[in-house]
Specification:
heterodimer, A: 497 residues, mainly beta, Neuraminidase, Immunoglobulin-like, eight-stranded antiparallel beta sheet, four-stranded antiparallel beta sheet, 4 helices, 4% helix, B: Cytochrome Bc1 Complex, Chain D, domain 2, 20% strand
Amino acid sequence: MQRLFFLSLLLALATPFAARAADAPKPPAGPTEADYYPLTTLPLPKDVVLEIGAIELLPKDRIAFSTRRGDIYLVDGAYDPQPSADKLKFTLFASGLHEVLGLVYRDGALYATQRGEMTKLTDKDGDGRADEFRTFADGWGINGDYHEYAFGSAPDKNGDMWVVLCLTGSFNSASKFRGWALRITPEGKVIPTTSGIRSPGGIGLNAEGEMFYTDNQGPWNGSCVLKHLVPGKFVGHPASFAWYGDAPKMGKVPQEPESGSRWAAELKKIPELVPPACWFPYPKMGQSASGIVCDLSGGKFGPFAEQLFVGDQSHSTIMRVALEKVNGAYQGACFPFRQGFASGTLAMREDAEGRMFVGGTNRGWGSRGTAPFALERMQWTGKTPFEVHHMKALPDGFELVFTEPVDPKTAGDVKSYFMKTYTYIYQSSYGSPEVDHTEPAITKAEVSQDGKSVRLTIDKLVEGHVHELTMAGVRNQAALPLLHAEAYYTLNYIPKK
Amino acid sequence: MKSLCTLALACVLTSSLWAAAPEEKARTSRAIVPKPTDAPKVPVGKGPDHALVAAYERFHAAKTSGLDEGGRLLLGDLNCTSCHAVPGGLGDWVNVKKAPLLTTVGDRVRPEWIRAYLMGPQHIKPGTTMPDLFVDLARNDKIHRVEALTHFLASTATEAQTDAFFDGGAIKRGETQFHELGCAACHNSQKSGAKPVPFAVPLGVPAAKYTHASLAAFLRDPLQVRPSGRMPGLNLNEQDASDIAAYFLKGTKADPNLNYTYYEGKWERLPKFDQMKPVASGTSAGFDVSVAKQKNNFGLRFEAYLTLTKEERCVFRLKSDDGAKLYIDDILICDYDGIHPAGEKEAKASLKPGVHRVVVEYFDAGGQVELAADVRFAGKQAWQSLATFLTLTADAKPKSTQSEFKIDPKLAIEGKRIFENSGCASCHELKQNDKKLASTLKPPALKDLRLGEGCIASAESGKRGASAVPRYALSPGQQKSLDAAITWAKASADSKPQPSAKQRMAHTFAALNCYACHQRDGVGGVDPNKTEDLDDDGVPDRDPTSELLSPLFVGTTPEMGDEGRLPPRLDGVGAKLTEAYLKHVLDKGSKDRPYVKTMMPRFGGGNVLPLVPLLAQLDKPIDAKLAPLAGPEARTKADGRMLVGTKGFGCVKCHMFDKQKAEGIQGIDLTIVTKRVRPEWFVKYVMDPQSLRPGTRMPTIFPSGVSPLKETLGGDPAQQVAAMWSFLSDGNKAAVPIGVGGQPIELVADKEPVIYRNFIQGAGVRAIGVGYPQKVNLAFDADELRPALLWHGAFIDAAKHWTGRGSGFQGPLGDEVLTLAPGPNFAKLKDDKEPWPTKTARELGYRFLGYTLNESRRPIFEYSLIGDNAVVDDCQPVAGKRPGMLRKISLPSGNAGLWFRAAVAKSIKPLADDWYEIDGLYRMRVTCGESRPVVRSGSQGQELIISATATKGVTLTQEFAW
């Protein structure tokens, strides 16, 4: 059989398919992501299975890593410019915990979010290993389903740590508070806070101290998405309604959304429903949104200060999200940022110097990064990539702000841009294709005086739609194209002015 | 069991003699021709008032133009062309549905049903395509002819069938299979409250038509009697066919065939019923526990006779909750005694020919009630209810379903003549002595038909013509469509062009109802995300047909979404599947997608194989090519193996490999890929999955066309794809790639204890496993605040939780596992008479506080009962050849009325030195200051409790040895 193909083949085609790939950007021409944000692999000891679930910074340049196997390692030497096996020191602080996906250091103790509880770990005798494991909060249920993950956040401005709980499977909430975000007060009290969660992949704060989490394509989520967690509100999946009786401060049970509707329509009917802050179109941006980190390094991580960086486990990437507030709700655009991580990106952490640690695992879920687990460090070289810094919605279009001045000729030409819009079906069955497509005309592209922004006039914007913008023709003054020419803006609301 | 073989043989009845013997048929010469009112009532099905042809109803019923296309579909499916000869050259325009073969119809269909059906086919099975007969005759004449036909058809029987019994389990399984395997795609859901689907193929009332055995046989191979593939074969195994048949025959009421005696009481094991006075006795049809007079706490003893004509090797199976035993000739065959949840136990036995006395004893001690006794004879796959073969008395025969109906040979002969001269033989093949009966009816050719007349005209229309013509029940739309098709056929019949490839493909798809499951060229199938503004209000509406059909398709993996439950779209299938595989799938059926519950049925080669060249001709070849291998084949295959495995692209994470499960979702088995798909399709799909299957979750492994694996084959994607193809071409001979099949991950306590918090079988969701270096192990249940399990030897295998997604419960890896007292160990009681509370620890307000590790890293558990003071629970291994466990519990003061429950067991026997033997499995000793243990009866058996009241701190000890 095989030999027959040999005979019939005339010519080998090298890689003729890339250009047609629906979800792949153009092959890199000129500078690449690595020229601005190189990755450094941290070598791991042979016997350490570091399927990183959470990362926490400790005093004295130590970093704590918790793993899906339930270990917590304290690592010295992770900041070394040229890390090598002999410079990195791993100490097994604790083991035998149940899939730790949240880690907070406070007052000399580590707070670990396990599937079934948040545990306070202390090293009383100072031998470098935890010897006291106090149940800090366990006011939620589990029943043995693998979906029932619990992701823990960093403390918010009140000192509360948030735990976001995956449903039992995709469709049900069989155990207490599954499908909820809970706040754990510094005293260990559990406050049910937000309902409507499906299957989180990470939780984190933005620069203003507001809590966000990522949810994944499935029932009531047409695609993977970043959502804002607001106390008392509902973020979309109604299976969580089962537990309002245990959450008296949440008020009445929200109206059940209508399956098959659209988010824009349901937002008008259900006052508790919070719009999705940013869709990650499936599978163009990713297939499994995960950890969230906000750049608070004050410029040490490059020009994207205070923006959010969100992992995608399946694509082994980190995406970038720039949000704004319109009509009192967060919305904004996501951009490709960095691909090529060694394993499926799950947990990330940035230190004050702008060094971002990225932990990967692909157990149970395949990823482009082929390593079963990995620890990498991403840093900024100091060179500014030519990128859209952020995208701001206007009543009749968008303002694009770039990281450097553009070439006025190409950036001022409407033919340099292409826009289409679509949304997702808001439905109880699994996922949604893109629906209700439009291709609005870009009627004007006006470059600002300083060349750093472009005002696009669009005929016309569609409320509730993702606006997918391709900027293939835009060049900077060195005639280079954008490092990433795609942006996806989730336009829940069109600003009035 | 051996002694059974020596049982005397008594009876010489053979199983074929259970049927009405041929001479018996002949003896009963005087048939009683029932008047219609005398005839046993036959239940009537639901459906439309006209012949239902699924694709016609779905795609043509609402049409107002282009009617001839739907008409041609009807010409084929109503079998018009069997009587009315088709003009030359039109054959390929009409896809003829051959009527069911009737050669042995008497074996599979009950004569009472044949009679009722022939009197009014549309009445008995609304929607049937069978025409009404003798409509122009006087009623008595019709009744007589129907009777004669019935006797003739019944006389084709070669053996009689017996009634079967089936338990609720078979009915439930059959219901599930019917609704998951794809039957419902054509027939709609049969569950109450299911939304009606206007084009669902009606089923009539199978229970009135078939016996259990004949329906099961039909379901296993429908093509044998219905060769046209409208009812495809689902490749059911014997068990599934039997279960689905049971589901359809669930309502049938059989005659009693077992004697029973009924007792009331509460037991832990079966008592000696024969020494007890029954509360009631009587006869029952099958092992029917509903004869019990109370819901729980009763016993039943069934007794009946099994007659065997030859020595039989049997496997018997008891399924029960609670205990049951099966005796044959007073020998205990299967012992499933004791209180237990629903479960099953099998036992083998060889039985001599003759009559055997069968006794099944059963008791219930609360909760669920279930009893089934099944048998599987050597050489058979399917379990059947043992009751099917049992009789009330030793000399009775199992009841024949046809015993009521006596064949009159004279009438049968007359019926044969009617069969030949009334047109029956035109459509239905019926062979006698291997010779097909010929129709003597001579209807006009299609080109000579007058529109709206003859067999499609109503009895009142006056356009019926010759009085022998049958009458087809048609909707007004069907009338018009047929008229259009006949007009089309008459017009210049000889110069008609042949249908195009696309038309021929679409005809076959429509006639075989491929469209029930599959979409092609935007026609048919289910598209739950299809939206269209149907009412022009600016808001997109769902496709109503997809809405109706969508719930009929289910998958095993909800998170795969629609891709994981809907049969695939067939656009481009001719360019995707290899010719050989396409043939295989159409002719033999397949079950390649483990996640989709429906399977591709078998349509019969002659009906579908013409599709193979059509699809290959219609679908544009994929513009991709497999790159020639740059290196030696063997080395490239090794590279391909690496790429497919978890050190490469990890295909095996989501795809099965030679029937071995993947760790995530279960995608199509990789070892059949090269047999299934064409190489160019594979190349393009791996390069860019979305281009061929938009929306698929199959990820792109070459983002931007670049391979992340630079080391292998120079990082050249084309070479890497070719290498994977080359490797996979070895099919199930391919070497297993890395990442397939789990390796155990044993956790070993070497110098210090190992802790494992996870889902542990028997210790709950918040279990804390502890393996001690002394080779004794503990699983502490942090929900119920109790040691749940103790065991010796190896600690635990973490592979279940550490290689996949972490689902499910893992039990101990070692041996001699002790299951300790359930529920919280502590409770406040008034006195030692108050029953132990049934509430959970959380409901009682107890809290788990965590644990500390002592200097030897041994966890010491802490929890609060009422108040904040912690109970400190230190479980210490006791070293030895058979290591034990010592539990020291420090209690805070102020525990007035607090009791400790040390054991819950069937038996608690005191031994020397305050030790107790628990269930004969282990020894236990408990002390608490001056308190003395009390053994008492509790709701779950015996309990050993001890007062833990303390005015100041006190230590309670509990020792285990086994």
